[in-house]
Amino acid sequence: LDLDTAKEELEEFIPHVREMSDSSIRKMAGRDLTRFKHFKKQGIPIKFGRFSQKENDQIKKNIKEFLSLTGIDNAEKLLFTSRYPEEKETINRLKAEFLFCGKIAEGIPRPWRLIYYRARKIFDPNNYKGRYTKEEKEKLKKYYAIHGNDWKKISEMMSRSNLSVAMKYSEIKSINYGPWTKEETQKLMHAVEDVIRKRSKLEAEKSSSEKSCRNLSIDREKLYQKLPWTEIETKVGTRYWRQCKQKWNSILTSKMTKGQQLYKGTKGLQAKINLIKRLYEMKVEDANEVKWEELSNAIGDVPRAYVQAKFYKLKVSCVPLWQRKTFPEIIDYLYEEKLPELEEKL
């Protein structure tokens, strides 16, 4: 396909495709477009966001089958070929010969690139090495001072994954951990406003809107969905991205509820009861299939992240051995065991 046709056809599945680089669009047209059309015929939408357990299992199955097919020793050699320079040529030849790109993505309605990154995270032995020691943190600061954002190089020097060293550095670089100051809160609000305005302006320009940036109306969903937290972290300067996200959600919750304490006293009991009932009625197999936005009115007019946080707290505090249970088992336990107790208490 020529580039313009590729953009046009991909836009049906990836609404923001025109913001991507030309090389990324060409790769996506080659790796994903046929797959996307196949999923569309089956009535399966293209997914983004967190991977479900079912998708993780499918990735593991695809990798296992590809290893069996090619005789490559292990997943690390397959996904981190540069770590094995002596075997690199052979492995790359086998990957090309047995159509690695298609095989790894089989049965997963997502862009290939996201599936590949997820596979690398699952199978990277450097990704599960526990907490960082004080010595490792000091080394990380030192390597960053020398190599900057070259996370690939730093990860090799520390025998940790790229993602791990990048996220850890984000946490330890001159970060405050106490209560937010007024100045920090203002910086956060300005940073969020700035990224939302930029995004809205781009969308307005695409739709040939004549509205000025100042007069753009903001859809409520844009206030708390898929914000670029690493960019916001940089603008705030003194907090890492997870702190920024948590603080922003608490600001939104306070504004949307006009400062009411929705999860206290009898209101809190009623919110828990409503949340358990609604989750039970949904009959979903995985937490990633839950439409959390639809559940927000079970607690009150609150952001999705607030509902998710309250469910997590409920699960951890009320369900014994919850880590070993499937999502439906957790919901069944809450409905059958915890719900009657909460209703009696109310």
Fold and architecture overview:
With 346 residues, the chain is mainly alpha-helical. The chain folds into 4 domains: 3-123, no CATH class; 134-173, Arc Repressor Mutant, subunit A (Orthogonal Bundle); 182-205 and 214-257, no CATH class; 265-345, no CATH class. It has helices at 3-10, 22-31, 33-41, 53-70, 75-79, 88-97, 100-104, 112-123, 134-147, 151-158, 162-172, 182-206, 229-236, 241-256, 265-282, 292-299, 304-318, 327-345. Helix 1 (3-10) crosses helix 2 (22-31) and helix 12 (182-206) crosses helix 13. It is globular. Residues 209-217 have low confidence and may be disordered.
Q: If you compute it from the alpha carbons, what radius of gyration comes out, rounded to the nearest whole angstrom?
A: 23 Å
Overall number of domains? 4
Average pLDDT for all residues: 84
What composes the largest sheet? none
SSE arrangement, N to C: HHHHHHHHHHHHHHHHHH
Helical content (DSSP H or I, runs of 4+): 55-70%
Structural class: mainly alpha
> What's the N-to-C terminus distance?
62 Å
Determine the strand fraction and express it as a percent band: under 5%
Q: In one word, what is the shape?
A: globular
